[in-house]
Amino acid sequence: MPRNSKDSLIQKIARQAYVTFKNFNASAIGDNKMLLDGQGNLVSLLTEIRAADLNIAPRQSTDSKPDRTPLVTYMHICETDAFSMGVFLLKSGASIPLHDHPGMNGMLKVLYGKVSIRCFDKLEKPPDTENDTQFDPPLPAFQNDSLRRSILRSTGEYSEDSGPCILTPEQDNLHQIDAVEGPAAFLDILAPPYDPDDGRDCHYYKVLQTVVGTDKKLEQHEEGEEMWLLEIPQPEDFWCGGEPYPGPAVSI
Question: What is the pLDDT of residues 131-188, one digit of tens each?
Fold first, then answer.
């Protein structure tokens, strides 16, 4: 694909994303130097992107009464077999619940506002571990198969001046995203895209409260701490709407 110096920044990002991820093999990720080099180039381009480059104006907080419009919307930019790219827009106080990206890489770059991101890694669950663990409230036995042992990998706040938040199939693959102090928007790249027919479906989770004594609970979770997640259906109070993408056209 020839390069054009007049290409928009988002076109350059899309082209680099395709070059970076077109030969991605999740089983060989640890030895894939070309992927790591490509990611470095992609991170450099993403660090430059701003809302104005996509003809998106930062939205203001509103004090209007709650309505039936979604708190989170998505602008689709492009999708190939190697990656998908779009923009998520979060109203003030909005949250994208804890979810995963099975076998996928991801890059998130804030365009305006600020978001808080908590990232988790799944861990292998030893047999019958749940029998030695007490939860508050107690977990019904039929939910034991939905338990997922995990570790809180990282927590952080990101703004338009921050570099991208990066996830891989092995690290930071589960995350929750919350708008902080007003509306926010971020550019999102997933590679390869979600595809339930190929084992890449989105699953939602909630963090379980663990009892550590007769009357004590782990109220605060720290980075590096192991904890339990429960796989749940998509929360009823979360849904994502769509709106048109107003920025420069992208072609791959």
Answer: 567 787 888 888 888 899 999 999 999 999 999 999 999 999 999 999 999 999 999 9
Write out the two tokens for 148: 């997922």
Interatomic CA distance for residues 201 and 102, integer angstroms: 7
What's this model's pTM, rounded to 2 decimal places? 0.87
CA–CA distance, 71 with 154 (Å, rounded to integer): 25
Summarize pLDDT for 56-90 with one digit per residue, the tens.
999 887 654 556 789 999 999 999 999 999 999 99
Rounded Cα distance, 127 and 208, in Å: 19
Q: With residue 179 as reference, give the H or E element that holds it.
A: strand 174-179
Two structure tokens written together for 140 = 């019904």
Q: Indicate the SS3 state at residue 37.
A: helix
